[in-house]
UniProtKB/TrEMBL annotation:
Its main location: cytoplasm. Signal peptide: none annotated. InterPro entries: Kinase-like_dom_sf (IPR011009), Non-receptor_tyrosine_kinases (IPR050198), Prot_kinase_dom (IPR000719), Protein_kinase_ATP_BS (IPR017441), Ser-Thr/Tyr_kinase_cat_dom (IPR001245), SH2 (IPR000980), SH2_dom_sf (IPR036860), SH3-like_dom_sf (IPR036028). The gene is frk. The keyword RNA-binding does not apply. Its EC number is 2.7.10.2. This is Tyrosine-protein kinase.
Amino acid sequence: MGDVRERIITCCQSVFQCFRDPDTSPSPDTGKRHIEVITNEFAKPQNRELPPTPVLYVALYDYTARTDDDLSFNAGDKLEPITKGEDWWFSKAITGISANKKGYIPANYVAPVESLDAEPWYFPETKRSDAEKMLISQENKKGAFLIRNCESQPGELSLSVRDDVKVKHYKIRKLDNGGYYLSTARNFPTLRELVEHYSKHENGLCVCLAEPCKKSVAPETHGLSYNTVDQWEIERSSVKLLKQLGAGQFGEVFEGLWNDTTPVAVKTLKPGNMDPKDFLREAQIMKKLRHSKLIQLYAVCTLEEPIYIITELMSNGSLLEYLQNDRGATLRMSDQIDMGAQVASGMAYLELQNYIHRDLAARNVLVGDNNVCKVADFGLARVFQMDNEDNVYEAKEGTKFPVKWTAPEAINENKFTIKSDVWSFGILLYEIVTFGQTPYPTMTNFQVVQQLPKGYRMSSPPNCHKCLYDIMLDCWKDVPADRPTFETLQWKLEDFFDMDITSYDDANRFAK
């Protein structure tokens, strides 16, 4: 055993001897050895920055590619943006039907994974009336729900739940520490945990939360594709006209197909009645106006006549025809009030942008699924020379108006302002209430022009709520400055049925 130990010691001494510095070696008589540690400068650890973790997004809606450079995806697919533009992102699909492929996607169709916007039940900008309309639709069942911003208290949230054929609303209250609660009996750190709890337990709600409200209507993309956002003069050959939808003072309207992929509406303008340069100048402004209650201008074809205006397609055509075809069969007063509120919302946006419509009427409002209404043809009256049709009055040479919709100061003095649009909105409300009846039904255009300055106003239509008729009269005041703003008209119509804080259900009353 001793021999082994001695051999080990001898071995170690030999190794140490190899590293001994001859200049500083201990003298043979001390028996001590010094070990110098030699560092390798090239072996120092380096501070390396790891590549950032890619931020993934989840698709909120289905999207079908419109060009060869687009990506198709379904709701729930994961995508990684590579380059972000304002409205379209060049991205890589991580999961789903286009996994590992790259292409352009509309930015308003996706949200960051794990964000509140990615939750299927989060509808932040949805108004109470819209929430009720969506939840009551046939595709949603009892227990369908959504969480939205509260209209009566900015910064707060509301829970809307379908209970059989009614929708009930609950305030979601916030704790100082950031938590949430419906009743004081229980609170939750996050909205997701609140939803998970009430999906299993009623605890004061009218019913357990079931499936989130269906997001059946995808938002309009900004432009037809990523390359038409700025370059929006498109090839006429890329547009196919399928069937005529209507005709009016500006031209004919067709259902069309762009690039063999995308349904659109195509307005063909009457040749010779518009200077293309004037139109393009106005269209540049029109294209920048974006609001959920305005028809979006997608593209134009102006290099030859007739000029094409390419817009989003609305399934039910003009509001005028929609009202005349229904005549009260399915539309009720609440629907009519809602239609007026939607138009007022779109016009309030134009008002904020200091933009004037000049030809607001039911014929220039379009209707989509679920009675969604959008204002169309804003700005066209500025650049279009109208034919002298029956509904047009020529006050002086070269100035023509649809007289029964036009404010007196615009007829007599050619003064168009947002307040003259307010006058026209009052006429549009009359059209809505009467299911598309022509205003001043017993009077000619000349009689209207003669009688309005004398104080004549249409009487209240049959079955019209007094408060609604009062709104019309406010729109028809002699002095333009005395007429309400569209913002005021919007909230008056949205709050028409007294949807205030007292109409919320209280989960505390039933909490266990």
